Amino acid sequence: MWELIKKWRYAGAELTTTERREMLEELFVFGKDNQLPFYKRMAFLLVISTIIACSGLLADSSAVVIGAMLVAPMMRPVMISAAAITLGWSHYLYQALLLVLIMAIGAVGIAAVLALVAPDQLNISEQVLARTKPTYFDLVIALAAGAGGAYTLTHKESNAIPGVAMAVALLPPLASTGILLVFGASDLALKAFVLFFTNFVAMVLSGTLTFLYLGVSPRKARIRSASLIRNYLLVFMVLVFGVSVPLYFYSTEVWYDARYKANQSEIMRAWLKENDFLIDDVRLDEKRRILFLKLLGPNPPRSVETLHTELESRLRIKHGENFKPFSIEVLWTKTASFGWPPELSLQSDKLGLERDYSARLRVHPWRWIGIQYANGDWLKPVHRQSYVLEAIDEGSIKISTYCTSGTAKYELSQEVISLDLDIALDEKCTAAKVDKRFISDLNQVIGINIGDEQLSLRLDSDIGVIYFEPVRQ
Question: What is the pLDDT of residues 291-302, one digit of tens each?
């Protein structure tokens, strides 16, 4: 690398002395008299841009956050760092790095103060959370943006600087770090800071390489400072490589997250298809060994026990003696399908209206499996064979329970059904409580659906579903 730096020439023509001087005077602050006004400007712009960024993040406004990126003054010390490495100016490099450090601490502190005095918020906004998922592409973008920033500075393309500032967010991740620390989410705050650090080191490295390629450093200066330039380049290359490795694997977790993996599982896919569900969200609590499922579907999930049994069996085979018990918790949201205009929309509603379950209900008796309520609780009979529902004719239905039996009236029209049960119970019977609940829920039935292997009766207000299986002779 030493010899390469010595011989590195700009492809075409190096910058002229005048061009080089103008670029350096625009970028660096020469003279002690000019440094204090410069630092004052940096401090003022940092405070203003952090206030804008923090307000946009807390208000969940992407437009305001973009405005803060344009005002933020952090692009300049980044480019100063890159140019100082190119020229072998250690003093200016250390000054720039110290300035970046102070500005980073200041931005985090200002954001934390603003978050403390802001109105209480129940949830962390999406704009803040967006800065907690650094991926491999963020590193690639930062490398490209650093090269773009260096090029625009050397070719007076000042109108392109705002685009570079927007492409790589240096300030919003810092503001997010301060906000997340106030929320007590230190793990997310660390990820937001990693995004800032990734952008910073990547931009310095690509900016340095671009400045070298464009001939910002005269050939004699490169020969004289080749060892110094090489060492700084190696440091930033190691930093970029050190960041890229965990970013790559974290990107895999983000892209192939729990939802993706759940949809790729054969057991999960079969269970979702059988129950007509879509996965809205999946989370895994490793510490408490809980699998959280957020599901969307027309009916409550009735076979979570089956899913748990199949997953447990697969995991026992996979992990053997290292298998650890786990549980599943489900949050179910009911969905409905409809469209407009009716003649051009999905035909599911039309087909539903054409269904006539009266004949299918009388084909054979139905044995009670259980009742699943909207909160996930189940009521299952101990003596399943004793609980049978049998339609006698178009209006009468025979109900048998463990403790009693009787005949009730029902009305059925398409998918709408109502039952009127007035059956006396023996309170001394050992299953009286279960029978009472079973009959009470039957009186709340409002909907019916019959498949090849299942009868389901939907309860009023969507509080649950009663499931039956066919009793074939």
Answer: 888 888 877 776
CA dist 199 and 142 (Å) reads: 5
Residues 6+ apart with CB under 8 A from 105: none
Is pLDDT at 70 greater than 90 in this prediction? Answer: no
Question: What are the tens digits of pLDDT across the range 89-145?
Answer: 888 899 999 999 999 999 999 999 999 888 877 678 888 888 887 877 888 888 888
What is the distance between the terminal CA atoms of the chain, rounded to a whole angstrom?
A: 86
What is the C-alpha separation between 438 and 330, in angstroms, rounded?
24
Q: Give the residue extent of every domain in the chain.
A: 2-255, 259-334, 349-470
CA atoms of 318 and 312, how far apart (whole Å): 10
The whole-angstrom separation of Cα 384 and Cα 401 is 9
Helix (H) or strand (E) holding 356: none
The topology (CATH level 3) of 349-470 is: Lipocalin (2.40.128)
Rounded to 5 degrees, φ, ψ at 179 are -65, -45
- What pTM did the predictor assign? 0.57
Please give the residue that has the higher pLDDT: either 122 or 469.
469
What is 259-334's CATH number?
Answer: 3.30.300
The residue to which tokens 């020439």 are assigned: 9
For the chain, what is the largest distance between any 2 Cα atoms, rounded to a whole number of angstroms? 106
- Report the C-alpha gap between 263 and 109 in whole angstroms: 42
Residue 392's φ and ψ, nearest 5 degrees, are -85, -45
**Residues in CB range of 94: below 8 A, 6 or more apart:** none
Alpha carbon separation from 195 to 132, 150, 225 (Å, rounded): 7, 21, 31
